[in-house]
């Protein structure tokens, strides 16, 4: 009989222990769900970051290699157009090069956010640098877009002639570079929004 009573008491203690542990399960499940959500956001961040780097690199290379010489010339003049003839396009190449370098260097931090989604330090650093890079690329893209517009349409009030009728290849390449830069800008906007969303969930 004493053995039976002892056995009954042990079963009772095990039951109470299980009841005490049961309320902890929902919280653990919520934490796991939140971590999975943040990891998914971090993976999407990495994809957008690589895509933005490719777009910025394409804009840099396209603009930096743009040059056209017309097949006719005079004794004293040769008609040539190059990106470095205009300071705005030079600034564009420098700004997009900086953006490309930053986006490539930020990939390891994005990977850290995937491996450790609960850590806020790398995410804060990324949203700060992404915002600065977004400002730089937006200014370069907008300024270059204005020059491309003048190259296509000119300005009669300022007596600026459209040059794209003569320098067709030059205008096509700089237009393509500006389009690629705006794609990079759009992707950077999404990156900033993703980082803000991830930080809001902490």
TrEMBL record:
It is found in: Cell membrane. The chain crosses the membrane at residues 46-66, 86-112, 124-151, 177-199. Residues 39-187 form the Casparian strip membrane protein domain. GO terms for cellular component: plasma membrane. Its main location: membrane. It holds the Pfam family CASP_dom. Keywords: Cell membrane, Membrane, Transmembrane, Transmembrane helix. Homodimer and heterodimers. NCBIfam families: A_tha_TIGR01569 (TIGR01569). This is CASP-like protein. It comes from Sesamum radiatum (Black benniseed).
């Amino acid at each position: 009989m004493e053995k039976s009573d002892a056995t009954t008491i042990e079963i009772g203690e095990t039951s109470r222990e299980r009841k005490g542990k049961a309320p902890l399960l929902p919280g653990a499940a919520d934490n796991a769900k939140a971590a999975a959500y943040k990891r998914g956001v971090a993976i999407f961040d990495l994809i957008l970051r690589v895509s933005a780097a490719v777009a910025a690199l394409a804009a840099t290379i396209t603009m930096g290699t743009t040059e056209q010489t017309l097949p006719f010339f005079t004794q004293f003049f040769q008609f040539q157009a190059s990106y470095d003839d205009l300071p705005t396009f030079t600034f564009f190449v420098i700004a997009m090069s900086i953006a490309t370098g930053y986006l490539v260097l930020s990939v390891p931090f994005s990977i850290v956010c995937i491996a450790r989604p609960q850590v806020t330090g790398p995410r804060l650093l990324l949203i700060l640098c992404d915002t600065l890079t977004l400002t730089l690329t937006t200014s370069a893209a907008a300024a270059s877009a204005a020059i491309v517009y003048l190259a296509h349409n000119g300005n009669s009030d300022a007596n600026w002639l459209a040059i794209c009728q003569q320098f067709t290849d030059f205008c096509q390449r700089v237009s393509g570079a500006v389009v690629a830069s705006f794609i990079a800008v759009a992707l950077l906007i999404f990156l900033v929004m993703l980082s803000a969303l991830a930080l809001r969930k902490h």
